């Protein structure tokens, strides 16, 4: 089930809201838990048991670690066992096929590759479960005694299948004691509708453009660049839209998730880009891998090795394929160059040049990320970098521009913090001119109209995937 579907919008969410707010406060966590499990089990019910089994092990491990008191050998053994199980499940479901294919290719063997279906969102909920056990071991949170609350933390439906990766410490107090205010509900509804608009109006249309171009067997330079820009906009609006909707839904039920995107395409360096893109994943790797490996401590050679491990892991986290491995190593090279050689040079450049350098680096990275094979990636990059233009290609280019230009413009404009500035300025102006209550009414009338437009796009489109569901 996806947020931008008629089943979710007109059946699941209304039923949940009615049941949740009619229930007494002591039962609301159980209502959320049951609906979250139903949400996850909608497509493939058997994988609910995989998630519940993983959470059960982590719940018991955290409870035992809490009773051990301190970082003694018993606690370390329990952490190691819990992490081994979590990572073992992740490797089995996500990487078995990739590992066996690699072995077959490297050693010319004929090992039969099993057809293993990967549970949706396993990368996300596994990282959440692992962070809970590690934080209990570190003494940053207390072990939760109620197993239903631990399961709720991991399975909470807004962030379950595509993030953001929520730390237990972020919502521990709200799991046990929270109040849903009118202000929270209103802000959550606004955030949800805006996220849905980003997804249905911009991301889906940019996805249709990118898919059309990446399927072409003959590429000219203008068409290749158009497709790369289309995918660059698609993946941002697709993933940030899901995060917006998740944050908005969480707010409706009294949970305050942290931001996952802060306009990454306005960055002035690759380093800044990764401080703004998929923040919950970047900080997860920083706190649970980069710093434990030594971080910035030690020699520059050790720093390089640590960066290499983190970005190799980041690439593998995104997918079991060589293009994802190379994508991670691509960013390792760029970030290492910035960290050790380019920082001073970049700071002296005009903002426009820094921005152009960053966007070009990100766009080339997304081509590697999107390509189905390394050969296809090389072909696409060749079309972008070696000028090739013919009459048919230009006709094709203008056909795509004519079809998608409104969504390209919307994507470029709203990848910048335009909406926030417009909302603040117009909101302040209207509050002065017509009063707070009328201004608020006008805002929600606009949001209602935007919701109606989203529904029109939804019912008239058959293209509605979420990219990060497969990670």
Automatic annotation (TrEMBL):
Organism of this sequence: Harryflintia acetispora
Gene Ontology molecular function terms on file: acyltransferase activity
Family: Belongs to the membrane-bound acyltransferase family.
Entry keyword Acyltransferase: yes
Pfam families linked to this entry: MBOAT
InterPro entries: Ac/AlaTfrase_AlgI/DltB, AlgI, MB_O-acyltransferase, MBOAT_fam
Upper classification of the organism: Bacteria, Bacillati, Bacillota, Clostridia, Eubacteriales
Transmembrane annotation, as ranges: 77-96, 116-137, 352-369, 397-419, 440-459
Location(s), subcellular: Cell membrane
Keyword Flavoprotein tagged: no
Keywords assigned by UniProt, alphabetized: Acyltransferase, Cell membrane, Membrane, Transferase, Transmembrane, Transmembrane helix
Example GO BP: alginic acid biosynthetic process
Membrane topology, from the record: Multi-pass membrane protein
Record-level GO cellular component terms: plasma membrane
Protein name as annotated: Alginate O-acetyltransferase complex protein AlgI
